[in-house]
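Hello,

Our lab assistant flagged a job as stuck in the queue for most of the afternoon. It eventually completed. Since we weren't sure the result was trustworthy after the delay, we are filing this so someone can double-check. Below is the sequence as submitted and the structure that was eventually returned. Let us know if re-running is recommended.
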Amino acid sequence: MTRTRKPGKASNADAADVGRRSFFWKLGAGVSTALASATAVGRAASDATDDGALRAALLEDEQAIRRLHQAFERALDKGFYDDVVEMFTDDAEVVFNGGVFDNRNRGVDRLYRDRFRAGKAGRRIEPAPGFEIDPDLQRDSVEVSPDRSSARAVFPYSIQVGRPIESDSSLVDMARLHGEGVQTWWEGGLYKVSYRKDAVDGRWKISRLEYDTLSRADYRPGRTYAMPISIPLIATRYPEDPLGPDALVPASERTA
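-- returned structure --
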């Protein structure tokens, strides 16, 4: 005689089988969850490591740019204009007093090796009394791009600027013989600088520099007074002016 199981009641064997399946299903789900959690933790740790490495690399780039700017100011201060020019990229440009000096071997070279040398310009001097720049504007800043190939920075400056005195008088001629015959003044403002990293040697160089002049004064170091001075913007380009720029800043952007 064949016995039939009553509906709704499972045998002990069936119950055990269901229990085993449930156990293995839970075990598999638990293992999958654990593996997923471990993977997420590993990925987070890897991302954190990568972020930390990037921050360290960006900080290293920032420090390199600051060292480059210090070398730039030091070379100008000592009149090492040849060294200054070598800190620029081949296609660099400098905006100075309404003129745009383009290309390291042409305009930038002409600005520093000729114009600055003739005017004894670039030497660091203290701000003229009564003409100090707002402290909020004297905070320098450096921002490196995430791909570490370019950067921008702002640095305050306080320098001597000058130009040869245009006169045919015998006194001026005599002064020129003694290395004088130059009208000099104090100038303060902000260097607004763009940098690019050389793809070959990894060195940072200046790709664009703008002298954003905020104040000028007739001043000599050691004096306790200073007088405001008005200096006309550059109005003549090279080669008509042998020391002139390659282009002029558009009239709408020119400020005295």
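-- support follow-up --
The delay was a queue issue, not a problem with the job. The result is valid. The helical segments are 12-78, 81-85, 103-119, 170-177. The beta strands are 88-96, 99-102, 141-144, 150-164, 182-197, 204-218, 227-228, 247-248.
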